[in-house]
Amino acid sequence: MGARAGRVVCDLTVSLDGYAAGPGQSEERPFGDDGGDGWGATLHGWMFEDAEENRAEIDLLGSARAYVMGRNMFGPVRGPWDRPWNGWWGDEPPFHAPVFVLTHHPREPQPMAGGTTFHFVTDGIGAALERARAAAGDGDVAVAGGATTVNQYLAAGLVDELRLHVVPLTLGAGPRLFDGVPRLRLAQVASRPARRVTHLTYEVLA
């Protein structure tokens, strides 16, 4: 894949027992049985209800120059693209950069307001990362999620920095960080407790 310019980073909010969402995810409850209304308000309240306390971490979330995400994070449509779906985020998604969506079903790029364009990649995580690196130039590429996609990149040794936002609740089941990932060596770079969350940053060594 050539020399690396920017880093590959990953931000993921997880419960204390390591789940990024609860079981039973659906279009009506995208975060499943998440201890709330199914829309992630409990897991992600630190971003929306305590935004100023967590401003530094929120700003980092939006600092990547390109993003990669799994199809499950993009939306609930499975199989061929048999109905319009442009993500959960409305007409102006928060990425403001190219986003490369992993899928098995081809689709033309979808430009959105605010500088986000969704590109649909059918030839695997390596190809998606290569395209994201080309789009990012010397900037960072962020693996946005969900947990299954993050685990694939961790297992392949493609993540440089892992930023976890650990929320003090347990979910007991659902998509879980590190499932299927071989043993990793990590170096803690930073940690910061806040009212609803503890922010942990690790360099992935091997």
TrEMBL record:
SUPFAM superfamilies: Dihydrofolate reductase-like. InterPro entries: DHFR-like_dom_sf, RibDG_C, Riboflavin_Biosynth_HTPR. This is Dihydrofolate reductase family protein. Residues 8-189 form the Bacterial bifunctional deaminase-reductase C-terminal domain. It comes from Streptomyces tunisiensis.
